[in-house]
Design goal:
- The protein is mainly α and 143 residues long.
- It has one domain.
- The protein has six helices and no strands.
- Helix 1 (3-34) packs antiparallel against helix 3.
- The longest helix is centred in the first third of the chain and has 32 residues, at 3-34.
Amino acid sequence: MDLADFGLDLVAALLYGVVGVVLMTAGYGVLDLLIPGSLGELICRHRRRDVGIVVASGTLSLGAIVTAAIFASEDQLGTGLAQTAGYGVVGILLLTLAFVVVDRLLPERLGQMLSDDVEDEPAAYVTGAMLLGVGAIIVGAIS
């Protein structure tokens, strides 16, 4: 690899990184809308492990989707960035759908369970598994 290729790879890494961070931040924002209260407060001040499990699962899923999209880009930076953003948005939409599906399947509202005074780790594990599963399905569709 010569210095010019190295420079282009650094630019690509920076741009893909920015796209990934924006998508994961958007995913966090969607979860913040779906779960009553502030995710930051629930995670940092109230130390809610159940909320952390759900947020971590969604973030890992989006990270995997972004990674798969980058691998599929075949060194076409402009097209790859657009595809990565597109797959990421699809991922956020499907992860939101998965959260809503779990919410409807449980006898209590998931968002309310995650923001009340009781930690609900079993519900968080089920939701986390659903989010990771959806992420894996999208990764499989990309590759």
